[in-house]
Amino acid sequence: MTAEGCRRDDGRELPPGQRATRTWRASHYGRVPTLDAERWTLRVGGETQDGGVRVFTWDSLAELPGAEVEADLHCVDRHSVLGLRWGGVRMRDVLALAPPAPGAEHVLLAAVRGYAAGVHLDELRHPDALLAHSVDGEPLTPEHGWPARVVLPHLYGFKGPKWVVEITYHRQPQQGWWESHGYHPRGRVAREERFAHQG
Ligand SMILES: Nc1nc2c(c(=O)[nH]1)N[C@H]1C(S)=C(S)[C@@H](COP(=O)(O)O)O[C@H]1N2
Ligand SMILES: [Mo]
């Protein structure tokens, strides 16, 4: 199965309020950035254990064990893309290279051009949480996040920035783009946490 082809619709139950789409159309605000993997870096800073900032290149992350996760992508606007096979490295392995300070339990995941998402640290420690660079065995296309995107399958898609470049640890919950427009601070799909007013 290819990323752009027909998605499987095998009658499995979707999470509450979601509909499966047959084609995978990219969804984001603004133009697609074209990033060079050779020059791309991921900064990890904020409330780190040693107070420092770590900057990872693509090559330095490629030394981590590779991971694959098959998962559906659920957009908070109610469309779901089924059966994507993400490849990359585990987020928890990346974080272990630049651990947070005790008590810094909140994270802002930032992409180029201002997009960001606030998540709880626990979500990034989930075994299925990836820093992904491929999907269905192919490198991510520019519109789907090349060279790297955060994939948190148990959360709505807005929690996973494409073109991610920075991770910062904080002591307080952080608001990214969607959170500052009324969307849920946690965004867990199984609990249908779409909007902040739900509590
Ligand atoms: N940088 C960036 N990442 C982003 C977004 C965005 O607008 N900018 N949109 C998010 C939302 S709302 C969803 S549902 C998914 C969509 O991913 P896709 O375009 O690969 O389907 O990307 C997420 N990551
Ligand atoms: Mo979305």
Automatic annotation (TrEMBL):
UniProt superkingdom = Bacteria
Where is the region Disordered? 1-21
InterPro entries, from UniProt?
A: OxRdtase_Mopterin-bd_dom, OxRdtase_Mopterin-bd_sf
Question: Basic and acidic residues bias: where?
Answer: 1-13
Oxidoreductase molybdopterin-binding domain mapped to chain residues: 30-178
What name does this protein carry? Sulfite oxidase
Q: Which organism is it from?
A: Serinicoccus hydrothermalis
Q: What is the lineage of its organism?
A: Bacteria, Bacillati, Actinomycetota, Actinomycetes, Micrococcales
